Amino acid sequence: MNSVRLHDLSFEQFITEEEVDQAVQRLADEMRVKYEGKRPLFIGVLNGAFYFATELLKRLPIECEITFVKVASYHGTSSTGHVLDLIGLNERIEGRHVVVLEDIVDTGNTVRHILDALAHLRPASISIAALLFKPDAYKHDMPIEHVAIRIPNVFVVGSGLDHDGLGRNLTGIYRITGPTS
Ligand code: IMP
After folding, report:
1. 162: CA distance to ligand 1 center in Å?
2. Whose CA is nearest to atom 5 of ligand 1?
3. Under 8 Å CB-to-CB from 78, ≥6 apart: which residues?
């Protein structure tokens, strides 16, 4: 399937499933060396990271744990402004090697908030692993240590990423071509 319509938008494939698999395998090989013997705790950010988490962890034969969180966004008081909360995190973080798994890092705002929330829990280390990274859209300084695929600043779906709820189950990555005619 080379093109697809989701709601009001059209998309065409630009990264195949095989290319995604190869990129995730390269990342898993790199992370195996870094995390072997450290029993890392992977924290997948729902909904999008379900696909990446599965594909990465099945290629990472080391002792590890995986859990998932949701990020809830709400407006705090006028002094706190916009706040993000992590829902569903029951694991002990203190002293652990934590790896946050994201489907995509775009501006980096989401991952910045997640790292701030986790840093208070005193992990031994925290790093970020993302299936996709848009360097041209990124607005922060913290390094995204583990990236499977860098893409230009275009809207994409597939491999866990959605457009208004649709497209997460597409294999490979599709980029927007325009509104449906
Ligand atoms: P950030 O906070 O700007 O880095 O954006 C992170 C979140 O925005 C991701 O976890 C996605 O849910 C969503 N997002 C950013 N870019 C895309 C895209 O190209 N396709 C689908 N979702 C995206």
Report:
1. 9
2. 106
3. none
Nearest CA to ligand 1 atom 11: 104
Question: Is 47 a pocket residue for ligand 1 (Cβ < 6 Å)?
Answer: no
The pLDDT tens digits of the residues spanning 123-149 come to: 999 999 999 999 999 999 999 999 999
pTM: 0.94
Indicate if ligand 1 lies below 6 Å from the C-beta of 105. yes
